[in-house]
Specification:
Helix content is 31%, strand content 15%. It is α/β, with parallel strands linked by helices and 213 residues long. Strands 3-4-5-6 form a four-stranded parallel sheet. β7, α5 and β8 form a beta-alpha-beta unit.
Length: 213
Amino acid sequence: MENERILMLMSIDNRKYANFHGCGEFGIPKIYPETMPDCKSWTGFNYVKSRVKNPENNGVHFFLYDYQFLRVWRTPTKYIDLLKKFNCVLSPDFSIYSDYPKAMMIYNHYRKHWLGAYWQSQGIKVIPTISWANEDSFDWCFDGEPENSAVAVSSVGTQLNKETKKAFMKGYDAMLEKLGPETILFFGKVPDEAEGNIIKCPTFYEKFSEMVI
């Protein structure tokens, strides 16, 4: 049943709304570079309808479980007017875990970029979210990403042990070399060895901890 559900989701084709020039071997839609946004704070997509009083001063992130934002892929036109109210939007962080089949990882990378390109075409300021899996993913996970742009990354869940930290830094360093980002919006703990023009952004968990304290 679960495999049938996944296949059903993967069969959704949004090219009826827009087609974009593809980059690399897999035709990944290109996201164009953006400068550093002027955001006072960041809100998870799951709260954009209920917890934001001044959206023009806020950005939207998708560092959430995938099920919490699958709807932007299933019904992409439905959320355009809502997202336009915000200062900027990060491209959606569909998961590309190392234990996923390669086809699914590439499909999720494609979906992230199709939505990012579509939102840009609708006048929304999109900051690309950069993500990777293992070293094999470096062959395609930067396809469609802009160079010399503001970008966003998340280290949440990657700093638990030496191996996951090492894997994160390999991808992070590969991103620096490949894309040369102007600014890096960093969600989660920043490793001491991380280089670049980093701007620390609090995660939901950090905000919650501050409220509890």
